[in-house]
Amino acid sequence: MTPIVQFQRYIWLVDTLYSSGPITKEEIDRKWRLSYLNNNHTDIPERTFYRDLRAIESLFSVDIHCNRSNNKYEIKTDLGENPFNKWLVETMSMSNFVMECKDMRKQILIEEMPSGIEFLNPIVDAFKTHRALEVTYQSYFSQSESQFEMEPYCLKSFKRRWYVLAKTTKHNDLRVFALDRFSQMNTTERKYTIPPTFDAEKYFRDYYGVVTNEKPETVRIWATSFRARYLRSLPLHHSQKEIESVPESAFGKNDGYSIFELKIATTFDFIQELRSMGTEIKVLAPQRLVDWMKYDAEKINELYK
Questions:
Q1: Domain count, the chain
Q2: Of 171, 198, 225, which marks where a domain is finished?
Q3: pLDDT at 1 over 60
Q4: Above 90 in pLDDT, residue 265?
Q5: Cβ within 8 Å of residue 219, ≥6 positions away
Q6: Strand pairing of 146-158 and 23-24?
Q7: pLDDT score of 261
Q8: What number of H helices and E strands is found in the chain?
Q9: Cα 145 to Cα 134: distance, rounded to the nearest angstrom
């Protein structure tokens, strides 16, 4: 068996354990016999199965437990405690899903990612070797490209784009760059060091996306009952909490609402997200953000007159 096929089986097994919950070896074998990877439609041999479990635990930093009372296997690691591991397992799960459905491409539509993904490997190599990168970059606000050296600190995905937080020879502070705006990226011999105190998760903790030029403040948002359902299921920010909720009246009057409070920086990308909700939300505080949303609404109204 080639390493690629073996790794594909790891991915398949991770997805099966992650999506099925507690599951017996017999149930796993039944699913395996139907897998696109299993041309012979046979069970996973016992020794191979246990060897795969140990390999998966090592590769994905998860703990796979077997409950001896019912002989069911499950991933016991709380993936919510480690966002990277959770993202990794969910990505593997999505990869397996896409491969299982490769004959249904007309029925399953996947969002495309903009260009720039080819620069992920050089940046990851820079993390490993601590060598700076020489890049050619053109922002959306510039008419021409510029060349400079860059010291990557972390990668972040947001709104179907990849971004890199880096220090450059042009600026002494950390800045965010979109990977799809690079045209060239080469590794240099110059070494750099990421301060041991740097914490990427903490750096972005107070922000909605990748814009980091404001300080966090208390934001209160009124939302219709309909929009509140979405905000509960997919919070805007980890600090979001619902501080008031009024149910809808009888007879479908649609007069219910909720008020949410967040501790977040009111940056451009956060405001853009608020704008996308239209009349289903209203900013209550801070006043500066209220004034901006009102001004923005007036300008939109003038545009459509």
A1: 3
A2: 198
A3: no
A4: yes
A5: 261, 262, 263, 264, 266, 283, 285, 286, 289
A6: unpaired
A7: 98
A8: 9, 12
A9: 13
Domain ranges, residue 74: 3-104
What are the helix (H) ranges across 110-173?
A: 120-129
CA distance 191 to 128: 11
For residue 205, is it within any domain? no
Sheet holding 161-168, edge to edge: 174-178, 161-168, 146-158, 131-137, 182-191
- Classify burial at 73, counting beta carbons within 10 Å of its beta carbon; exposed 0-12, middle 13-18, buried 19 or more: buried
Residue 110 lies in a domain: no
**Are 13 and 76 in a shared domain?**
yes
Crossing angle between the packed helical segments 3-20 and 25-33, to the nearest 10 degrees: 120
HSE, side-chain direction, 13 A CA sphere, residue 103: 3
Residues in contact with 249: Cβ distance below 8 Å, sequence separation at least 6, in sequence order: 255, 256
Weakest-pLDDT range from 13-17, 234-238, 248-252, 260-264? 248-252
Q: Residue 122: pLDDT above 70?
A: yes
One domain for residues 139 and 230: no
Q: Which two three-digit tokens encode residue 209?
A: 């996306």
Q: Over the stretch 169-209, which tens digit does the pLDDT of each residue have?
A: 877 789 999 999 999 999 999 999 999 999 999 999 999 99
Last residue of a domain, one of 104, 139, 173: 104
